[in-house]
Design a protein that fits this description.
- This protein is an alpha+beta fold.
- The chain has two domains: about 5-90, no CATH class; about 105-240, Structural Genomics Hypothetical 15.5 Kd Protein In mrcA-pckA Intergenic Region, Chain A.
- It contains seven helices and eleven strands.
- It has helices at about 10-20, 25-35, 50-65, 70-85, 130-140, 160-165, 175-180; strands at about 5-10, 35-40, 40-50, 105-110, 115-125, 145-150, 170, 190, 205-210, 215-225, 235-240.
- The strands form two sheets. Strands 8-7-6-9-10-4-5-11 form an eight-stranded mixed sheet. A three-stranded antiparallel sheet has the order 1-3-2.
- The relative contact order is 0.15.
């Protein structure tokens, strides 16, 4: 019999999920949320590993299709919350769960505009997909697209797109790995790649591209690899410089 894990939802989280009943492809998952047992100020549900993974897939769809920015942030928070529980079923290959381990400080610069950048703190047990989510919010984007991270095999001092594609290790959106379609790639699944597995060193430069059509390129510099964590949420933006450009030339697009 599959192992079950107890997950506590706040009333706000549960109420928000209940509003999305029509969008749940798996009605059993929704039923489990609706019959959650109230314990004090929270609600307790029991999911298996398979149910958590399926729930994360459905939540990713909800987040991507939600037009209201505030609601999308709340859904993203629920996604991140459940993703931490998925590490309870760790196969032992990683020393750290999703919210443990040292803190990495990454400076993310919008390519072509050195005055627009963000510093992001992320824990080594978290994934490149977690990093993508934080960059997405850090630059105030609202429409999800595919993405990839590129780690050059040799030292790079600046962005050279052709060279990066030819001589880098690529980690990409999980949807690309499942069904490459027109975006065929040999990249590894970013959602299964923890920061600790990348063997990052300070001053290392790697690259991130968001939206394979418009190609928003970013240069990411590793500023710290062994920071001490506080009680705050990770990943998070620690410094912002410069305003966020519009995601599209025409905001209504």
């Amino acid at each position: 019999m599959d192992e079950n894990i107890a997950i506590s939802l706040s009333k706000e989280q549960r109420d928000l999920l209940l509003k999305f009943e029509p969008y749940f492809a798996n009605h059993e998952l929704f039923r489990l949320i609706s019959i959650a047992v109230k314990k004090g100020k929270s609600y307790e549900i029991f999911f298996t590993e398979e149910q958590i993974n399926e729930f994360l897939e459905q939540m990713a769809g909800l987040c991507n299709n939600e037009a209201d920015e505030e609601t999308q942030y709340k859904l993203d928070d629920i996604y991140d919350y459940f993703e931490q529980y998925s590490d309870t079923f760790d196969d032992g290959s990683s020393e750290h769960s999703s919210n443990t381990g040292a803190v990495f400080i990454l400076k993310v610069v919008l390519a072509g505009s050195k005055k627009i950048w963000r510093k992001i703190a992320i824990r080594e047990g978290q994934t490149l997909h977690n990093l993508h989510d934080m960059i997405f919010h850090a630059f105030d984007r609202y429409d999800e697209h595919m993405y990839s991270f590129f780690f050059p095999y040799s030292i790079q001092k600046k962005l050279n797109v052709r060279k990066i594609h030819q001589s880098s290790e690529e980690y990409t959106h999980p949807y690309v790995c499942e069904d490459p379609g027109p975006f065929s790639s040999e990249g590894k699944d970013a959602s299964k790649t923890k920061i600790e597995s990348l063997n990052l060193i300070e001053e290392q430069l790697f690259f991130y591209v968001f939206d394979f059509g418009d190609e928003w390129w970013h240069e990411i510099t590793v500023e710290k690899t062994n920071g001490k964590a506080d009680d705050g949420k990770y990943p998070r933006v620690t410094v912002r410089k410069g305003g966020s450009p519009e995601q599209y030339d025409h905001p209504d697009e």
